[in-house]
Amino acid sequence: MKAAWRRLARAETRLAGDAVVAGVDEAGRGPLAGPVVAAAVVLAPGGRWPGMDDSKKVDPQARVELFARVLAEARAFSWTVIGPRGIDFANIRRASLKAMRCSVEKLRVRPDVVLVDGLDEIPGVTCRQHALVDGDQRMLSIAAASILAKVVRDRIMERLDRVWPEYGFARHKGYATREHLDVLARLGPCPLHRFSYQPVCVQELRLE
What we know:
This protein has two domains: 4-160, Nucleotidyltransferase, domain 5; 165-207, no CATH class. Helices cover 44% and strands 15% of the residues. It contains eight helices and five strands, in the order H-E-E-H-E-H-H-E-E-H-H-H-H. It has helices at 4-16, 60-73, 84-90, 92-106, 140-160, 169-172, 178-187, 200-207, and strands at 21-27, 36-42, 76-82, 113-117, 128-132. It starts with a helix and ends with a helix.
């Protein structure tokens, strides 16, 4: 079987040709706590990226190594963090799209084409866009963006675990694991939780 990164690179070339491509993805739509992080990446043409794939398919150590390589070798990259209160205010879809737009705007290289993971194109981005379901499994630059977003968010959650160690954020990263649900039922939410999400909002009501 051919390396995943070669398949992703070929698919991206077929779609975008020689255009300057920015891949955009986010991490953290589903968790009960913590921020959503969006990243945008413009890779240098012709690069070899062994191991690059959808971040969910890459083991944690390999993700960290790819993250460092993207920072060192990509033509441009950026990320944007929107915290739980911003998510509660806007809803997760709008917060994610805002983070994506901000990340594209912060790139030091202006893209000709933006490839977005998911169903939605990004409001306010004026260049050509393609929204691609499972884009992080289909396009190399989106896979790179997924790596950046995932590693940045994981590191944020590991640091926040020092502030609220009783919740175990370093282990579950805010997702609805049994451990997290049990401690949420026992202690109730902390400021890192998304109060618009069930079961967090249910726990909040019980505390009133």
